[in-house]
Amino acid sequence: MKLFEWEAPGPYRVAFSTRLGGVSEGPYASLNLGAKTDDDYDRVSENRGRLCAETGGDATTATMGFQVHGSNVRKAKPKGVLAPAEFEQCDGLWSDRPGQAMLLVTADCAPVALCRSEGGPRLALLHVG
Q1: So what's the pLDDT on residue 53?
Q2: Would you list the domain boundaries of the chain?
Q3: 3-128: which CATH number, 3.60.140.10, 3.10.450.50, 2.40.50.100, 2.40.10.10?
Q4: CA distance 10 to 115
Q5: pLDDT tens profile 58-69
Q6: Which alpha helices (H) appear in the chain, and where do they start and end?
Q7: Quick one: average pLDDT of 13-38?
């Protein structure tokens, strides 16, 4: 799996994945994380689980946003990313909960991570584009 990591100040691990290292095939090869495609959901779930394992995130409490190309940023709620679920319709997630894994899917838009370097922990992931 290919990851680009940001050495963020504080207690954060921020990584941006590529499409390498997953199990999806055909037009969705290889690390497809998006369930709103014609990809087999079992493969999407396996890909999400692999990404969480690689980054040390807990897939059972991780959460995602469902991008709508808007300006809503929501507080991340532990939900789990392996089973089919409806996620918050937003273009950003933030958390002050230590260890809260958050995933955002981007295609032709840019992923942005912001963190607080002093005071209590705060991390935000944004889908920009």
Answers
A1: 95
A2: 3-128
A3: 3.60.140.10
A4: 8
A5: 999 999 998 888
A6: 41-55
A7: 92
